[in-house]
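Page 37, top half.
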Amino acid sequence: MGSYAGPVTEPLPASGRVAAFFDLDKTVIAKSSALAFSRPFFQGGLINRRGVLKSAYAQFVFASSGADADQVERMRAHLTALCAGWDVEQVRSIVEETLHDIVDPLVYAEAAELVARHKADGHDVVVVSASGEEIVAPIAAMIGATHSVGTRMVAVAGRYTGEIDFYCYGPNKATAIRELAERNGYDLDVSHAYSDSSTDLPMLEAVGKPSVVNPDRGLRKVAAEREWPVLAFTKPVSLRSRFHVPSGTAVAVTAIGLGAVATAGAAWYGLHRKRRK
């Protein structure tokens, strides 16, 4: 679980290309992306009512105060076991059908504008999130990102085993960023990164131009010590009013990967984020 090992491509020569790496939850969108899909998964029969209530509680903790590492690990272990046996195609279909209704109201206007500015400057935009690939990739496509990286789970014969192939969290985010930089010729010294969480400190330290967005208490302290820019994103905006939305087929194809972590990484990811300021 320590290496990104994404699609194999030939490394490009160093070209000084600039990338902007964005965390997803509380940076691009106002809530936990994974937890937001608990109700559609309930309606699709993947989780029961108790699971919905647990996700609602996790979303409350995520929004208010956060959780300690032990709580995060217990929830992660429980939910990854819960998703074992889920059908990949069913999960992908549910995400495709509900993605825009769920995510549209959550995107920060400030984040959308920042993404647009980076693209106008010729920068690649990369979303890097601990949420599942099947959620991260479509959202990244919706906002016009060039690439995305999310947590990836193992699937055998079209069903999730409950095992994690790549956990895109903490230091692993920095690992993924460096591997993407090597393949795509990014100069990390002149590249940007944005996040709200102190758990993403390795990601922020991997680039020469880090900025913090709606930072938790720990990250705000680090930002003050290192004189990093502190941004406040407060205005959700509809993506439909700003970006071309890909067709359902395109979203379905892009969403290949981790179905299970939509809920099975839900509270695990959501609970680890702290918002104390």
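Page 37, bottom half:
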Amino acid sequence: MANAFAKFLIFTTALSLLVLCAGATYLTVEGPVSALLYSNGTLNLGKVGPGESFYVLASAATANQSGAIVNIGWDTLQAIQLPTGWSAEASPLYQNPMKIKITVAPYANNGTYNMTLRAVNVGNYSKLGNLTFTAQINVTPSVFSPSVNPTNITAGVGQPTNLRIVINNTGASDDPFIVNVSGLPAWNSPAEVIATHSASSTYLYPIFMDEPGIYHFNLTIDSATSPLLHQTFPITLTAQSSLVNDFSATGQGVVLSPVIYEPAYAVMLLLSDIYHYVFG
């Protein structure tokens, strides 16, 4: 009997909470994670690197105390309390979805940090008041995992060949990264790429040498916002003049000539592949 009564009490309590929440205002968070929050709730946003910026996105739609839907209820999203050294840019008024930008201190220590954010109904026009919640995020440099392939290259002199770069971004920031090389005499320009949060992205980075030889150099991947997010990959490039290697490099490289020559590049690549398959 006692056990049955306890179950009944739990059920009625849960039902009461459900009824209470049905008539309460809420906030629909759309990024970097998805969640439905009520006032004084807590939200875990994942992780971010020191010095990185990230956005919290939320819908302007909500419900009033009577349960009626208000499509443009929340007018802005603000930060009312941040860790020391952090900064925020409030969501512009009437933006939908609302988007607040938060920047972590450049050399923030590893650990979990709390922020107090607030959705505001300006002037209480829709009789919603404000909705305040706690956002948590873990600061760590372990927010991206890059790879480079190949690391040992044979190419024709003066012909570009591509390095395939994969950046697995496990953090909350859509961080720009700078890809560059050091140790090559030829002119190879840096490239900026965007690594979307919680996604794996692939990029092709062309390199070349205009003199034959064996070159050892480093390819670096650096966050554009945080000096603590950095990876280096040693690469070996053998640049040599031969018809087969010229065909292979031309077929794989960046097409610098008019598009009409693309079929010729494809044929060159096919010939070089056949040669390497037959002769090793």
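Margin note: The radius of gyration is 27 Å.
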